[in-house]
């Protein structure tokens, strides 16, 4: 029995209270938690500091405004075109005998550009002249017969009155005279027709000579001696349709496609500043000629014609050109030495510490950083702001910079 009682006591749960933890162990646990929090905060700070800020950007464009008020209200691109350009061809089909032009050659109005083989035209002309000679010879023969018939009728008229010849004989002489008069009229008309045939054959001979329709410069030579040319395409690749192409360089102008949303800013006679892509430092004064009253449905644009006020051999057809439509024409004293600024969207200009600043993207694409610059601003128009200093043309500026963006922060341009 005692043994069973001992066993039961061993199975009894001990209800003694656990001793309180020591103060040292508590501080150790608390230190571990604080250290973990500090390490997490440090890691977050390092990661957030190394991540680049995504920003929207734009490119600063050069403008002709040097603080004088000649602000550009719209920029567009187009091409130089010629209002007078012609591919000169012969009026007839024939074989080229000689080509007298080369590319780049200046020609005057009426100058011979090429000649065709004139054998057929010369033969036709010779035939027409022979027919004219025959018609004139016939006139002479009928004229001689008519003179004799008139004299015979006059003589018989007197004899009839004297009743020395019969009346029938006299009437026969009169009829012969009148018939010869009719033959003479017909012969003269035949001669006139032959003369017109000669004139037409002369035109055929002249058509073998190809002349320039106006003064200009040859920009293309299309035919060579021995080739067949025709004013109409005969199919295949063996018949040329032209001798060469000439351009009147005095008729050069610019055609620009302006978006429908911005065509309201353009007006006739509006001053324009044109810049050729080949000569970016050359500002050409120009003027709007007309706004073509039709739109391109596919591109949603309206064509604008711009007249160039300067004529220069450097300007050639199909050159790319950028035009700036100005609020007003530059003053007479403004020239190439006038100060020029850049044009940026208004969203690129921010206010920091009471002044206007612009953040410029500096460095490479992989390590781009924001560079804060103080700027001097000019006029504003059409959502654009003129910067007179602080930013150079072609630099990339940040649009709507965040308030916490600082000089030297890493940035990455957003996808367009």
UniProtKB/TrEMBL annotation:
Keywords carried by this UniProt record: Coiled coil, Membrane, Transmembrane, Transmembrane helix
Pfam families: Beta-barrel_RND_2, BSH_RND
Domain Multidrug resistance protein MdtA-like barrel-sandwich hybrid: 84-230
Domain CusB-like beta-barrel: 254-325
Gene3D superfamilies recorded: 2.40.30.170, 2.40.420.20, 2.40.50.100, Helix hairpin bin
Record has Transmembrane as a keyword: yes
Biased composition (Basic and acidic residues): 401-410
Residue ranges of coiled coil: 132-190
Region (Disordered): 396-416
The UniProt record lists the keyword 4Fe-4S: no
Segments passing through the bilayer: 26-47
Family: Belongs to the membrane fusion protein (MFP) (TC 8.A.1) family.
Protein name: Efflux RND transporter periplasmic adaptor subunit
Protein species of origin: Luteimonas colneyensis
């Amino acid at each position: 029995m005692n043994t069973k009682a001992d066993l039961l006591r061993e199975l009894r749960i001990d209800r003694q209270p656990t001793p309180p933890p020591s103060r040292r162990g508590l501080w150790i646990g608390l230190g571990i938690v604080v250290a973990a929090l500090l390490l997490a905060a440090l890691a977050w700070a390092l990661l957030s500091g190394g991540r680049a800020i995504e920003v929207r950007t734009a490119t600063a464009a050069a403008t002709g405004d040097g603080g004088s008020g000649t602000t550009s209200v719209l920029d567009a691109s187009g091409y130089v075109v010629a209002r007078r350009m012609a591919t000169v061809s012969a009026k007839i089909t024939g074989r080229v005998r000689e080509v007298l032009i080369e590319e780049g050659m200046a020609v005057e109005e009426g100058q011979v550009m090429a000649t065709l083989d004139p054998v057929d035209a010369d033969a036709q002309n010779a035939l027409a002249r022979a027919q004219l000679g025959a018609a004139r010879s016939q006139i002479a023969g009928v004229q001689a017969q008519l003179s004799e018939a008139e004299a015979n009728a006059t003589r018989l008229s007197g004899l009839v009155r004297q009743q020395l010849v019969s009346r029938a004989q006299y009437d026969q002489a009169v009829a012969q005279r009148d018939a010869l008069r009719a033959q003479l009229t017909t012969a003269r008309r035949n001669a006139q027709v032959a003369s017109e045939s000669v004139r037409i054959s002369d035109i055929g001979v002249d058509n073998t000579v190809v002349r320039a329709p106006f003064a200009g410069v040859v920009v293309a030579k299309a035919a060579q001696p021995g080739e067949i040319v025709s004013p109409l395409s005969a199919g295949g690749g063996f018949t040329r349709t032209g001798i060469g192409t000439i351009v009147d360089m005095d008729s050069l102008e610019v055609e620009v496609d302006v978006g429908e949303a911005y065509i309201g800013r353009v007006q006739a006679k509006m001053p324009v500043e044109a810049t050729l892509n080949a000569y970016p430092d050359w500002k050409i004064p120009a003027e709007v000629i007309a706004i073509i009253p039709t739109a391109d449905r596919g591109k949603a644009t309206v064509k604008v014609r711009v007249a160039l006020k300067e004529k220069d051999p450097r300007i050639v057809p199909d050159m790319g050109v950028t035009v700036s439509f100005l609020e007003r024409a530059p003053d007479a004293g403004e020239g190439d030495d006038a100060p020029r600024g850049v044009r940026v969207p208004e969203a690129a200009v921010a206010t920091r510490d009471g002044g206007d600043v612009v953040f410029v993207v500096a460095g490479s694409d992989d390590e781009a950083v924001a560079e804060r610059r103080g700027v001097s601003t000019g006029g504003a128009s059409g959502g654009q702001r003129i910067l007179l200093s602080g930013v150079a043309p072609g630099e990339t500026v940040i649009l709507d910079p965040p308030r916490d963006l600082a000089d030297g922060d890493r940035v990455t341009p957003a996808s367009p």
